[in-house]
């Protein structure tokens, strides 16, 4: 099947060599050489000698035995979360998902980003309780076993920290792999009990309008959430990618609030206090709030706006000469489905529409792909997401004009990767 691309298939639809989005889907069209199909990970100086393809050594002995719980190949040991430098003895900090190492839309559970304010509590599910109280007719206490008996539903959803990509606010562009800059976002299949079922069972008072959700970690992390959103589509998450929620992601139960910033997805959930006003907790006043140029503060900005990111090529990877490449990336929006992703190879002067890979789901990662005939000259790669509400991901200068320089949270500007003639990739503001 391997064959050269016919030159008429390589007609650019945008500047810098961006090709029509359907190019790779045409029957028989493959990359010019098998080698270019390999990843752009920086090559080893002296790659090991290849095994004889007709007689590799591993066909001559029985393989390893069965395992109770599988782990990735030992050759993939470098694919790990990038643990942030601001770890404290109290367990406050983050670890980033290595987005540039992953494909598709699901983040393996062991690579889901982490944001803990007080470390990961070791909760025994047999003695953990969830309490719903306050402005309700019947305060309820659930065991985990009780919750496991309720009707459930599953959804593929991203969770993104409100502080993700905040290095974008820096004066100078930060030089890090894509995931160690934008990887406080991950996507998983979450399965649990619709919260409306439990709230209705408790009988919410008509005067109620807010719920204070509290976790069972050492800081009793809490946030105030509008009752309407919790009744609409929130759930008590019990399973993550088919297995029980991982300890670092909230075992045995976490709140799942689709499309809303990470902090609202309270882990190790232990209490839902139904009230008629927000509690003005530390996490919604001192943090996850930003001062605007007008002097007013932006608060309770729950929805994560549309965003996209090119994961390949990206900083730390290397292009191997002029050829046809697949630009790959992720897009997501807290407001619904991604409707369009455009890519540019000339810093935003011209754009080509990328292929959106099925499935495209609401409040979930969407994988985009775009064929690119790189001519070996310096290029500026960008991606721009549009969601089904019509919202378009802004350029960095537009975002800064709107929010000023005091921002720290909710950075969703277009990201620009500069490709050098020698194939190195760096982060630039352009
Ligand atoms: N109880 C509790 N819930 C929490 C946190 C926490 O520290 N404690 N961190 C919040 C923040 S700021 C984010 S971004 C998400 C991170 O979820 P993850 O660690 O599963 O990725 O959890 C939220 N829920
Ligand atoms: Mo967060």
From TrEMBL:
One of its GO terms (molecular function) is sulfite oxidase activity. Residues 301-401 form the Moybdenum cofactor oxidoreductase dimerisation domain. GO terms for biological process: sulfur compound metabolic process. Keywords: Metal-binding, Molybdenum, Oxidoreductase. The keyword Metal-binding applies. Residues 117-279 form the Oxidoreductase molybdopterin-binding domain. It comes from the Bacteria. Its cofactor is Mo-molybdopterin. Coiled coil: none annotated. The keyword Transcription does not apply. This is Sulfane dehydrogenase subunit SoxC. It comes from Hyphomicrobium facile. The lineage of its organism: Bacteria, Pseudomonadati, Pseudomonadota, Alphaproteobacteria, Hyphomicrobiales.
């Amino acid at each position: 099947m391997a064959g050269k691309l016919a030159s008429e298939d390589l007609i650019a639809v945008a500047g810098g060599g961006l090709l029509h989005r359907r190019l790779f889907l045409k029957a028989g069209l493959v990359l010019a050489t098998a080698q270019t199909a390999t990843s752009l990970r920086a090559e080893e100086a002296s790659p090991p000698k290849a095994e004889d393809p007709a007689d590799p050594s591993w066909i001559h002995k029985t393989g390893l035995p069965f395992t109770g719980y599988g782990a990735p190949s030992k050759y993939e040991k470098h694919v790990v979360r990038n643990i942030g430098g601001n770890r404290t003895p109290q367990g406050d900090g983050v670890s980033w998902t290595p987005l540039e190492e992953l494909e598709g839309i699901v983040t393996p559970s062991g690579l889901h980003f982490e944001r803990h304010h007080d470390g990961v509590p070791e909760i025994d599910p047999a003695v953990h309780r969830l309490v719903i109280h306050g402005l309700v007719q019947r305060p309820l206490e659930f065991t985990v076993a009780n919750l496991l008996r309720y009707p459930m539903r599953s959804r593929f959803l991203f969770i993104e920290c409100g502080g993700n990509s905040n290095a974008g606010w820096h004066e100078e562009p930060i030089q890090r792999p894509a995931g160690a800059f934008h990887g406080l976002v991950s996507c998983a299949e979450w399965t649990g009990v619709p919260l409306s079922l439990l709230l209705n069972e408790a009988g919410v008072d008509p005067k109620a309008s807010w719920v204070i959700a509290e976790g069972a970690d050492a800081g009793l992390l809490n946030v105030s959430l509008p009752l309407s959103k919790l009744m609409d589509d929130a759930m008590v998450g019990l399973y993550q990618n088919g297995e029980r929620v991982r300890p670092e992601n909230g075992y045995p139960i976490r709140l799942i609030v689709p499309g809303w910033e990470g902090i609202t997805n309270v882990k190790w959930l232990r209490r839902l206090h139904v009230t008629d006003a927000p509690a003005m907790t530390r996490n919604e006043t001192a943090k996850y709030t930003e001062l605007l140029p007008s002097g007013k503060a932006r608060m309770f900005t729950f929805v994560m706006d549309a965003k996209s990111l090119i994961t390949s090529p990206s900083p730390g990877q290397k292009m191997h000469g002029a050829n046809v490449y697949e630009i790959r990336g992720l897009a997501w929006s807290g407001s619904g489905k991604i409707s369009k992703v455009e890519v540019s190879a000339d810093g935003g002067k011209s754009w080509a529409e990328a292929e959106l890979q099925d499935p495209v789901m609401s409040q979930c990662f969407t994988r985009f792909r775009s064929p690119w005939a790189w001519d070996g000259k310096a290029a500026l790669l960008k991606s721009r997401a549009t969601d089904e509400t019509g919202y378009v991901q802004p350029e960095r200068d537009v975002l800064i004009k709107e929010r000023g320089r005091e921002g720290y949270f909710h950075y969703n500007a277009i990201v620009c990767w500069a490709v050098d003639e020698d194939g190195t990739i760096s982060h630039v503001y352009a």
